Amino acid sequence: MTTKDISRPVCILGLGLIGGSLLRDLHAANHPVFGYNRSRSGAKSAVDEGFDVSADLEATLQRAATEDALIVLAVPMTAVETLLDAILTHAPNNGFTDVVSVKTAVYDAVKARNMQGRYVGSHPMAGTAKSGWSASMNGLFKRAVWVVTFDQLFDDTTLDSQWMGIWKDVAQMALAVGAEVVPSRVGPHDAAAARVSHLPHILAETLAIVGDNGGALSLSLAAGSYRDSTRVAGTEPALVRAMCEGNADALLKALDEALAILNETRANLASTPPTVESLADNGYRSRIRYEARSGQRRAKESVSPTITSSRPVLRLHPGTPNWEKQLLHAETLGARIEVF
Questions:
Q1: DSSP class of residue 272?
Q2: How far is Cα 178 from Cα 3, in angstroms, rounded to an integer?
Q3: Could you state, in order of their start, the residue ranges of all structural domains in the chain?
Q4: pTM of the entire structure?
Q5: Rounded mean pLDDT for each run of 10 residues along the chain, 340 residues in total
Q6: Cα gap 106→114, rounded to integer Å
Q7: Residue 212, Cβ neighbours under 10 Å: how many?
Q8: Under the phi-then-psi rule, with left for phi > 0, alpha for psi from -120 to 50, and beta for the rest, what region is 178?
Q9: Residue range 7-184+310-339 in CATH 3.40.50.720
Q10: Superfamily name and number for 189-270
């Protein structure tokens, strides 16, 4: 997949870890890309590195309108509505996507402004605990899952060829930077993200606090298991709040499930003799299933390890008869898609 498969320039609003890394990868592939960053110092740093970046939102959106660019909202959920209003004012005919980690809230904000005919939601499942332009890097999305949504196909929304083109461009953009595109509607995405992204943040924060409460000796003894299990607790607190609070309903269900498992484990530890057999066995099997799906298991067992996922692959052409059924099928399987 090459950036030639993307039919228009890309305009990225917000150049932190995700937006900045996307800018770097598209620039490295010689695809037309420019961006906006609210932080003037961050914008200057990007310019000094040779990137086409501005700290003027209005001018950036007016340029996007002139060039018919695909606009990417790469900001926290708390800033999405402000940018949607700016797009309505300065680039009302442009197609746009977002990379926010919650999708229902964004889609609701888009529909409230009647912009869903030009919008395709997306979410790259990639990142680090760092943030800002300085955290951005080339290759962040290589082999990462990039969710692309398609709820409009089942809503009472009038769609045209323009929307189909936007959908294809969003998918092609993700493929062009090395990601694996997995289609999902916003509800199933948020339910899954609560389990595998947002709950881990809650648990990491909890583990970090419990370890720290043990005092100096606990922190001195902390090694790999504590380091790895608390890694995402190093994420900027405002970003954690935005993703978890923005997906509260789905996160509560996942958290209740985790609390039930922990309460059962506590009861088993308090019994005579104490045991964590059920937790350890079930957790081990679940981890093995994850490693098999992600390709990590095969890489461990290989003499020359290369991680390639075991997600099923479906090929589709946007707009052909029954392609919405293909997307639903891919969602059910957690399959990645190839677009032609």
A1: S
A2: 11
A3: 7-184+310-339, 189-270, 276-308
A4: 0.91
A5: 82 96 97 96 95 98 98 95 98 97 96 97 88 92 96 87 95 96 97 96 98 98 96 92 94 98 97 97 96 72 58 89 93 92
A6: 12
A7: 14
A8: left
A9: yes
A10: 6-phosphogluconate dehydrogenase C-terminal like domain (1.10.3660.10)
